[in-house]
Specification:
By secondary structure, this protein is α+β, with helices and mostly antiparallel strands. 35% of the residues lie in helices and 14% in strands.
Length: 725
């Protein structure tokens, strides 16, 4: 005979199998289990029932028996009120005593600011270490429903069947109920208990369309900036919460999950915040208090030196930084909106809060979703940021350096922990050990002072002087170039070194981009920027051992049309060295500097007249030839030329001629929209040959005509503007 398959046991009047996600209650008479929703018993009501009778047993044994209240100051209100036990947090006695306490004013630590002042640039410069209050939400970029938006409106947009977490304040216990049941409770004439909703995240509902989070929270958020669309882990949604609390609701002292910062706006009603600064001493006391068995009987505000009281009224937005310990009292019925976000400004504190949660064995439900995963994503992106700062020869901000150091330590510990705890949050496409190694290398590079940090510190510069928008515009292209470079390296064990032509092409592109500015720029500014060779270009020349190419910038004279030019002088240790590749189509190459310049100018579409043909220009060309000879002599004095340091080359200057602006001895570190290129690190682009009259019907010789076309195309890019050669 075929054995019968085991069938699941059925429960309740609905005769359904057990569902772990649904609340159930046992009948004390028939011992059957019933879904609370089927017998109209809410989860928070079940704790008040002493003996439960199901609908069937109720007919024979009478109604259920309820517990009798014996006190108003304990979470278990059936305990005898003999005065032997202290008051517990959240009870009605506790709330009355809290309202009678005196606290230092929140004005001592609260920063009152206009929303337009709360920018990422401001916080990066001044830090985000104290709470900020803003009284006009429009200036923050925050958009919310109108002040008459009601609890019933929330039900209409979110849906009454949505199951929400509700806190029974007098017991400080969490339970679940449908939103429709909470709305019914909220509007009941007599509320049997104090219920508080603080974790209704509505990003996946229609109400999300009514709310736009503050600009600062959007722009700084790790999730918004670094979480990839193709992540294996589900994206955390913690930016849009609706909080609905009745009078006397209370949330005891806590730190927001993962050390997140929080924005908080009171739509109507009033909230009172009790704020404690996250000093090392206070954090240690907080961890000790949180792990104590009598936590609810001790008011943490009394254990620290100062606990500040801050009243947040209707229309006010509060921004709370990382790690601040706070409790919240709802002094009158209130609806508020808020959100949490991780960011780069306080990475160390965020990690410290997360590790504290682990030590306290905080349930996953109350921790930031996939905190470790997002830290790996952030580490990968910050590695790119550090590389870009190094290539720009700029020092990253101090907060970022400290944050990366803390992140490296945390990532190492998590990687070691995976041996004993197999549940990993390392994304599949990240090589954790390699990432940690590369981050460590970048930090060591900074600490060894190899990126011009000494110079920048002496000038009072603490960060790369580029705007964030410029940085963002460069990031995608630069990271794409780096990926291409890495792919090329992967496919070839011996990557091809850049040729002399590639280096010259890269530098020409760099100079042309820098010269694309308005004609009204001051001469002094131009001299300041262009009379010195850039550090990046000098480093390129130094690294190319087979190339004695040196580029300097010399002042020229105005032509007859009044246009102003700068002349790029190409100085070679040997004047004929490889110059024929870019200056001639024929087998005969120029043998003098003058012929080389003539070839370059003709390719740029500029007329070159011999000194004897144009007396007005004779003096200029003589000066030009003189400077070329000076640079050639200088190179000859350096021995092989390619072994000279970039510092020695960049420090070699000329005495300014009459009428020229003196050059300033400084290291070029300005980050512009066209940053200094590094041909030895980024593969130079190789555009196809230009089709022009010079090449029609001919097959260009490799390295000669093609080279000319490539350079000609570069030089033609800026013909329509004041052209600097």
């Amino acid at each position: 005979p075929v054995p019968k398959m085991a069938t699941a046991q059925l429960y309740c009047v609905c005769r359904q199998p057990y569902d772990v996600s649904r609340f159930m209650i046992e009948c004390d008479i028939c011992k059957d289990w019933f879904h609370g929703s089927c017998v109209e018993v809410e989860e928070h009501h079940a704790v008040d029932i002493d003996v439960y009778h199901c609908p069937n047993c109720d007919a024979h044994h009478g109604p259920s028996l309820m517990k009798k209240r014996r006190n108003w100051h304990r979470h278990d209100y059936t305990e005898p009120d003999d005065g032997s036990k202290p008051v517990q947090a959240g009870t009605s006695v506790f709330v009355r005593e809290l309202q009678a306490r005196t606290f230092p004013s929140g004005d001592e630590i609260l920063q009152q600011m206009h929303g337009s002042q709360v920018t990422q640039r401001y916080l990066e410069r001044h830090g985000f270490r104290y709470p900020i209050a803003v009284h006009k939400m429009e200036e923050l970029g925050l958009r919310l429903p109108p002040p008459d938006f009601s609890v019933k409106d929330v039900e209409r947009y979110v849906g009454g069947d949505k199951v929400i977490d509700v806190i029974d304040v007098a017991r400080q216990a969490d339970s679940k109920m449908k939103l429709s049941a909470f709305v019914k409770y909220y509007y009941s004439p007599q509320r049997p208990k104090v219920l508080n909703v603080i974790s209704l995240e509505f990003s996946d509902t229609k109400m999300s369309e009514l709310v736009v989070v503050p600009d600062i929270a959007q722009k700084m958020s790790w999730v918004e900036n670094y979480w990839p669309d193709d992540s294996y882990f589900p994206k955390p949604f913690v930016q849009k919460y609706c909080l609905m609390g009745v009078k006397d609701s209370y949330t005891d002292f806590h730190i927001d999950f993962g050390g997140t910062s929080v924005w908080y706006h009171v739509l109507w009603g009033e909230k009172v915040f009790y704020l404690i600064k996250p000093t090392p001493a206070n954090l240690a006391l907080y961890e000790e208090w949180s792990s104590s068995p009598n936590q609810s009987e001790v008011f943490f505000g009394e254990k620290v030196d100062k606990c500040y009281k801050c009243v947040v009224r209707q229309g006010t937005t509060l921004l709370i930084p990382t790690g601040w310990i706070h409790a919240v009292l709802t002094s009158q019925d209130c609806m508020a909106f808020g959100g949490n976000f991780l960011h780069n400004l306080n990475i160390g504190m965020q990690l410290r809060c997360y590790e504290m949660e682990r030590r306290l064995k905080t349930p996953d439900l109350f921790k930031f979703p996939y905190f470790e995963a997002i830290c790996w994503y952030v580490a990968k992106n910050l590695l790119e940021t550090l590389k870009e700062s190094r290539e720009d020869n700029c020092l990253p901000p101090e907060y970022l350096i400290k944050g990366v150091k803390a992140l490296i330590t945390a990532l190492r510990n998590w990687l070691k922990r995976e041996v004993t705890e197999p549940a990993s949050e390392v994304p599949d496409h990240i090589r954790p050990s390699h990432l940690i190694k590369m981050l460590t290398k970048e930090i060591q590079y900074l600490e060894n002072g190899n990126c011009g940090s000494k110079l920048m510190k002496s000038q009072g510069i603490s960060a790369c002087p580029s705007t964030r928008s410029a940085h963002e515009r460069r990031s995608h292209a630069r990271r794409t170039a780096r990926r291409l470079r890495d792919q090329d390296h992967h496919h070839s064990h011996s990557p091809k070194a850049p040729s002399n032509l590639d280096i010259f092409e890269q530098h020409t592109q760099e100079v042309l981009k820098r010269l694309e500015m308005g004609p009204n720029e001051e001469d002094a500014s131009l001299n300041l920027k262009f009379n010195k060779v850039s550090t990046a270009s000098a480093a390129v020349a130094e690294r190319s051992l087979d190339n004695d190419l040196r580029l300097v910038l010399c002042n020229g004279q105005p032509n007859n049309a009044g246009e102003q030019f700068r002349v790029v002088c190409v100085c070679l240790k040997c004047t004929g060295l490889k110059l024929n590749h870019i200056c001639s189509e024929s087998a005969t190459s120029p043998s003098t500097e003058e012929d080389a310049i003539q070839g370059m100018l003709s390719m740029a579409g500029l007329l070159y007249s011999h000194p004897s043909e144009d007396p007005s220009k004779g003096e200029h060309h003589a000066k030009l030839k003189h400077r070329i000879q000076e640079h050639k002599n200088f190179m000859d004095s350096q021995g092989s030329g390619s072994n000279s340091s970039s510092e020695a080359w960049s420090s070699h200057t000329h005495s300014p001629a009459h009428g020229e602006s003196p050059t300033l001895g400084y290291q070029y570190c300005e980050t512009s929209l066209s940053p200094p290129l590094h041909p030895s690190k980024r593969p130079a682009s190789n555009p196809p040959p230009i089709s022009n009259q010079a090449t029609k019907g001919k097959r260009p010789k490799k390295g000669m005509a093609t080279a000319k076309q490539r350079l000609g195309k570069i030089l033609k890019l800026s013909r329509h503007k004041p052209f600097f050669v």
